[in-house]
Structures are given as structure tokens and as C-alpha cells.
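Reopening this one. Same input as before:
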Amino acid sequence: MAAAPLKPPGRLKTLTANIVRAFHPETMREKGIAWTIAMLSIVFIVVFLAIAEYWGEEPDRFDVLGTAVKEAKVKDAKQLPIGYTYATTVIEIGETLLNKPGGLLVNDMFPPGVFEDNMPSWEYGALTALRDSTSALRNHIARAQSQSKEDADLAQAEPMFYFDHTSWQLPSSESEYQKGIEAMKRYRARLVSRDASFFSRADNLRQYLEILEKRLGSLSNRLSASAGDTTQVAAEVNPNAASPLERRQVVAKTPWWSIDDIFFEARGYSWAAMHVLKAIEFDFRDILGNKTALVSLQSIIRELEAGQAPFLSPIILNGGGFGIFANYSLTLANYIARANAATIDLRNLLQQG
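Same output, byte for byte:
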């Protein structure tokens, strides 16, 4: 009986066999030192690029309410103390920055982290949103009135998050941010024991929305400048001009090497702010319902979520005008500008009643 024909090895098996054969001592002696160095360099570059690609992936969204329920070890979200979801979201954002693949990359001084370009900008945007939410909590939301005593744990947490994000020496950024997270956890635990305060009032929410409004407006403006915004008037060109008509317009176009940095910073800020707003939707549900403002808040969240859609190009495309190439910056600027407009509407609604 004829023997059954052997099945050809799979691609992965063939590749593995070729790699083993290439680094076999006999092959290395036969090919010489130059060939060996070339092969090692190729393997190093492939591994380096694979790690960089893995570290450069943006973190996934997390379930704000589900995370709070899990941390509180309760069965129903209605059992959560007011403010617990907000505090948990701030903690989760901070832990995501520190514990995602590669950890915090913005302060890396050695490869492959030092060669990362997009993720450090994303981290800075998310960190800015973390700082904004913590500042609003310390200075407004956790205080009954302007002359009330501030919360001790929040007074420790906020400055920790404002530590220099590029510091890699002692103390490192990671160690200081971890201290801020631990202080936030103590505040959250005291919310359960009713030893800490969280005032979900309209005036407190307006204070955070005012910060968010300015951040989103700035990001939208910087993203739009990727196409060369000629609407900005340069007052410094002729400071002694008698009227604005005598001042010439200039093209405040973003340099090509900074376009992707601004894009990913805006993505990072939108990602973190989106989660904070979802926490606000739950913790401020009474005031939002009373002022029929829930729809406006959900509109902000929806626009920021749309700005988190995956992009297909390996590089950030910024075609001009109505050309054949897309302009990613202008697309994201549109979503952020719409979120900014909804933020203004919500803040006015809360103020007017």
C-alpha cells in the first residue's frame, strides 16, 4: 500500500523553521559575522515595531456605572452613594494611564517608549481631562459653599495629578500620580461611610462645564488650524493700528509635524471627558432631570463618542479643502465643536433654570 502523502507545513511552522535554521550555529559560521549581524538587526526591528504598535493602541472605553457597582460591591446602582461613580471614574482614568500596555509613555527616556509619538500626546490629553475633573471636584463639587473647608484627601489628590508629566527621575510621574489615585480612593471610601461630601447642585456642575467648554473650544480651534485658518487676526503685526481693519490677516496653520500631536491630544481629552460626563449623568441625575437638561448632556457625550471612532489610515491624513484625501483633524474638530456648542447650551440651561 502506498504511503499517504505528507501535508505541507503551515506558514507559521515554515517561518519558525526558517528562523531556527537562520540562527543555527553552523549557518552563522557559514554565512559570516556580517550576515549574522544583519539577521539580528532585522529581528530586533521587527520585535521593536511590534511592541511599538501594541503600546500605541488607544485604551478601550469602560463601563462607568458597571465599574462603580463592581468597586462598591453592590447589586444595584441605586445603592451607590452620590459621587461614588464620579470618584470611581476619575480613579479608573488615572489607573488606565498608568496600567495600559507600556504604562505611562510620555516620560519614557529609553526605547521603545521614547520613540512613541502618538500615545504620549493621547496621554497628555487624557491627563488634562483628569486634572480638570479633579480640580472641579476639589474646588466646587465637594464644597457646600465658597467658604467651606476643602476635603483633605482631595487637597492631596489634585496637586499630585498636576505633577510634571515628563518627569522620569525621582520622583517619577507615575509615583506621584499613584499617590493621587490613592488619595482619591480614600475620598471614595469616605463617601460610603458618609464622612465625605459630594454636592450635585446645578452651580457646581456649571463650574465644571465652564472648564470643559474652554477646553473643547481650544481643541476645536487647534484642530481646525490644520487646514490653515485665515479668520484669526494678528494684532501683534501692528499693535498701534487705529482699527481692526488696518490689521492684516495671517494664516495660523499648524506645522505639519504637530498635526498628529494635536489630533491625538484631542482624542485623549475626549476619551477621558466622555467618561466623566457619563459619571455626571448618573450622579447629577436629579438636577439634570429637574432642569430638563439630560438631553443636552447626552448630546455632548454622543458627539465625543463619535470622535472616538477608529480611523483606517496608518497615518493622520489632513487633505486640504475638498481634495481627494480626507482631513482627520477637521473631522474630529467638527465633533468637538458640536460638543462644545452643546456644552454652552447646557450651562446656560442650568443657569437660567
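So the earlier flakiness isn't reproducible anymore. For the record, The longest helix spans residues 259-283.
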